[in-house]
Structures are given as C-alpha cells and as structure tokens.
Model the fold of this input.
Amino acid sequence: MTEATIIDGKAIAARVTDKIAAQTENYIREAGAPPCLAVVLVGEDPASAVYVRNKGRTAEKVGFKSIQHTLSIDTPESDLIALINKLNGDPAVNGILVQLPLPAHIDATRIIELIAPEKDVDGFHPINVGRLGAGDFIKALIPCTPAGCVILAKSALGDNLSGLHTVIIGRSNIVGKPAAQLFLAENCTVTIAHSKTRDIEDVVHRADIVVAAVGRAEMVKGAWIKPGATVIDVGINRIAAPEKGEGKTRLVGDVDFASAAAVAGYITPVPGGVGPMTIALLMANTYYAACRQNGVSHLIIA
Ligand code: GUN
Done:
C-alpha cells in the first residue's frame, strides 16, 4: 500500500522563523529594541513547562527578548491579575502569553479577557476572536496552532484550498473553532465534528483535509480517512510505551499514524508536525504585535 507523504513541520517552521529572524534585524534598526515576549506559567505541569521553555528559546533564537514569569501552583488569582496589569502597562513588553491550562482556582476566561488585545499573541481575547470571525486579518492576532494547520495544509496542497472539504475534529476555543474560521476564510467547505457527532467516521471520510484536535490518543483510524486526503494531527498525547522499557512513555497524536499513513496523501507526524508550527506562528504574532505597537510596517510572514 502506498504511504502518505510526511509533512515536515519542523522544516516548514524553520523557514518561518528564519524569515522572522531576518525581519527582526530591520525591526530593531527602526524601533531601537527587539520585540519582547512575556510568557507566564502557573504551576509545574511538566508538558506546559516544556512548551514554555521552547517558546522562550525560540524567541531568543529569532532575536527577540524573552521574559518568563513562573508562579507557584497556589498563586492567588489576584497576584496573576496584578502581573498581567503590569505587563499590559509596560511599553517594553509587546506580547503576553499565559500558558493554559491554569489551575482550577483561577478563572482562565477572566485572565484571557484582561490581556491587552494588542499584546494577546495567543489570539484568545474576545476582541481578537471577534476580529477573526469578522475576517479582519489586518488587526486580528490569529491563534497560532490553527494558523499553523493552514500553512501545513497549503504546504501539501498548494496555496489554493478553495472548495476543499475540511473536517475539523474538536471544537475547542484554542484550535477547533478558530481553525474552522481560518479554513472558511480559505474558501473551504468546513465541518466541525465533535464528541456528540453521529457517524463521525462517515463525516471524516468525506474530508479532503482532516484536522484532528480532540486530545484523545490515536482516536482517528486509517479506515476513517478518504484515500489521498491530507491529515493534520494537532494532538500531543503521552502514552505508556512498555516496548521501550518499564515505565517508559512516548508521544502520539490524535491520529493512529500507521493506519492513516497507509491511506492518506499527506500526513503530519507527532512530534515534528503541528507543534513546531505553533511556536513559529507565536513568533510571527509577537513580531506583528511589536510592529503595530511601534508604528513599524511589517511583512506578512506566513
Ligand atoms: N496550551 C495548549 N496550547 C496552548 C496555546 O496555544 N497557548 C497557550 N497559552 N496555552 C496553551
């Protein structure tokens, strides 16, 4: 059976970050200081800590200033609010990202709504959600993971996705809903499937592009995929890997890679697919935010 072509997210993300690094040099000449990204982590969730470290590292690699605030798991909500207010009011900070999930005693919606929309490099503030829904791509900051999914789909299928049927599995605010808006803006026919969708296999089987963002390890099977379809796997799930030794684990996506790769035309791996794109697009958003705040004209990076 023919095997799908693997979409190399790492290489595509590196092209994006190389472009940003080149533009950062121009930005510094005009603005006098590098773009600055502040990342806030509450608690010690190991996966979140890895993501935050990678975001800070990539920021420095492209020439940005990176600040990390690590707060203990029992930080009162009022302390986090005070920190966000301080970052909002600091003209040297261009982008603010609060890593999710937050501990249960903190109201995540309240925190997201507090971040100044022009510094909201995650694109989660209702102002940015609304701008995306209204198709205002000039002013909106667009959520990084869905933006990365569109670029990966285009890397396989070319820039014109018009008329293709995209089925998004998952309806989260972080991925599923904004991904639907972005593929719609590309003139795709968009279906959002979720845990209550009937005959989900049949729905997915009609897709030219499948975006899997449910957070359930290897849920999407090869038999669900239309032959030749493009599969974008957003999931990052850690599962037991006894074959590697006792207590060992490995990362898998929401797609059963082996069976899906046997029928798909193109497929993203986990890791090395969507993950690096999320970080690359975060750098793009930070660059746009810094340019807009300082009246510096900017290129569209990706
Ligand atoms: N947790 C999982 N994905 C994301 C993301 O894109 N941004 C933030 N802030 N937290 C996350």
The radius of gyration is 19 Å. Residues 97-100, 122, 144-145, 174, 278 surround guanine (CB under 6 Å). The mean pLDDT is 97.
